Amino acid sequence: MAVLRLALAQYDFPVGAVAANTAKVREMMLRAREGGASLAVFPELTISGYPPEDLLLRPSFLAACQDAIQELAAGTNGLAAIVGFPHSLGEVYNAAALLRGGEIAQITHKQILPNYGVFDDKRYFRPGRTSAVTMIDGVRVGYIVCEDVWQAEPAAAAAAAGAELIVVINASPWDDVKQAAREEVLVARAKETGCALVYLNLIGGQDEVVYDGGTVLVNGDGSVAARAPSFVDALLWAEFDASSRTLRALDWPAIEDTSREATLYAALVRGIRDYIDKNGFSGILLGLSGGIDSALTLALAVDALGADRVTAVMMPMRYTSQLSLEGARGQAERLGVDYHVISVEPVYEAFMAQLTPVFAGKKADVTEENLQSRTRGVMLMALSNKHSRLLLATGNKSEMAVGYATLYGDMCGAYAPLKDVYKTEVYRLSRWRNLAEQRKHGADAWIIPPAVIERPPSAELRDNQTDQDSLPPYDELDAILARFIEEEQSQAEIIAAGFDENTVHRVVRLVLVNEFKRRQSAPGPRATTRAFGRERRYPITSGWK
């Protein structure tokens, strides 16, 4: 029986970069041909990138994608390739084209259009009707697009048409439970159809989503033959044996650390790197407060871009502790970033001198605290403008959920790496990053100052302030938030699970009334199943409590 050699392009194909994506496909096709592959496979919407959103409403963009697929078809030269592109036929389809023999030999359209979570496919595409099957080197190969594998019918139709191997091209965004769900679906499809499955996924950061790759090979009996590492760009080689309906990975990169923290950390690093580089910034800037959120953000930024592209600024005020000053300086020096200390006290005092007459008769309150944060925001934005370095916001999901953040203050920034990371996860990531450093360089090594990890969290906007003056302990807060946000549990259900009634009501009220803040927050990489922004969209004005 036949053996089919495949080359799987687990690479980033950025949104809108039609010419660059076409050139990359051409290069990968050449490598595949030189490596003896008979079939090269590329991700969903390879040519346009995913998701192209309203670019799909522009006729010139669709025409450019069509020209690109025609150009690639002309250069196949003995190789077959499956390439994703937006196919315009008056209406637009999410398509996979089989390129072979110098032409577009076959086109199939995505049949199941997701319209939940981060997906908006029904806004742009019309559904396809059939699954495609073709013969390559004596093997009957079916191919479908992304969501089609999550329902039984498209794979069953391919199998009924004689497929022995089903190739699934994907642009499936990562979250912290996605890979396990994918494999469960793929195993089910293999067992239902008896077909082996090749699951190829896009990789790279795109605004508020991150694609992890995580390509998987599943044998016809449902056993997993191979897993590719997440967030690693690679041309992956594989062989399919039609006699046994089994797949074999050929020298795939090793997966070194499969822990939740390692994968989440890699996702955040990739999100930062791609957001900065794809938008053409020379580097990043952030306020380094001596707290754990900014310390973790600095570590992520250096791992993403290198120390020479990162600037950290400590902006002390009268309430800034010595621990914060020492922690920020120690981390900046250890990581080798450009570091500055700029006091906000004189600027804050100037603001207060102008405002005090209008504040007459009113007690000091959160207004003065917020003004400190906003003073820092003004200064950071000025530095960002002057040095053309994109400002990172350092807030986490716990804070954004309950509004424990200051508009035009610590919320300033164009990208927020921790926006979908709960505070308890911030601590776990920080400890994991230090452990990873210790494994490489010894027990005394660290990236995030241990004292910063162990200290009680504080905004340091007044004497002896801690976050728990305003919020429940983070382990309790995050547990309530996860139930309310990710699991969509009601307040009654959360209370029935054993949480204090008054605390639950208070936390939920804070989540609901702070939607207006979240609408004005910077984008950040999706890490959970219900990220704020394009995935969780609640009305600002609502009578539902």
UniProtKB/TrEMBL annotation:
Keywords: ATP-binding, Ligase, NAD, Nucleotide-binding. Residues 4-242 form the CN hydrolase domain. It comes from the Bacteria. The active site is at E44 (proton acceptor), K110 (for glutaminase activity), C146 (nucleophile). The keyword Coiled coil does not apply. GO terms for biological process: NAD+ biosynthetic process. Pathway: Cofactor biosynthesis; NAD(+) biosynthesis; NAD(+) from deamido-NAD(+) (L-Gln route): step 1/1. GO terms for molecular function: ATP binding; glutaminase activity; NAD+ synthase (glutamine-hydrolyzing) activity; NAD+ synthase activity. L-glutamine binds at Y116, S172, K178. Its EC number is 6.3.5.1. ATP binds at G287, L288, S289, G290, G291, I292, D293, S294, T394. InterPro entries: C-N_Hydrolase, C-N_Hydrolase_sf, Gln-dep_NAD_synthase, NAD/GMP_synthase, NAD_synthase, Rossmann-like_a/b/a_fold. Pfam families: CN_hydrolase, NAD_synthase. Catalyzes the ATP-dependent amidation of deamido-NAD to form NAD. Uses L-glutamine as a nitrogen source. HAMAP family: NadE_glutamine_dep. This is Glutamine-dependent NAD(+) synthetase.
